[in-house]
Design a protein that fits this description.
The protein has about 70 residues and is of the alpha+beta class. The protein has one domain. Helices cover about 15% and strands about 35% of the residues. The two termini are about 20 Å apart. About 10% of the residues are buried. The model has no long low-confidence stretch (mean pLDDT about 90).
């Protein structure tokens, strides 16, 4: 299991397992990472920025390609 560190909107560092991310959405001006029932309001500015960061953090052999 690999964790990634990122900043939430409050400027706090949070560590999440990227394999637990179920979706990335925008609510208002906030990019939100959905982790099942939990969410993280991230400091990412766009969905593309968030997904690029997440994809780079997951080793290729663990990615669930569709």
């Amino acid at each position: 299991m690999k964790f990634i560190n990122l900043s939430n909107l409050a400027g706090e560092t949070v560590a999440i397992n990227p394999l637990n991310i179920t979706s990335v959405k925008i609510y208002g001006n906030t990019v939100v990472l959905c982790l099942g029932a939990d969410t993280v309001n991230s400091s990412f500015r766009t969905i593309a920025e968030a997904t690029h960061f997440i994809e780079m953090a997951i080793p290729s052999e663990l990615r669930r390609e569709q």
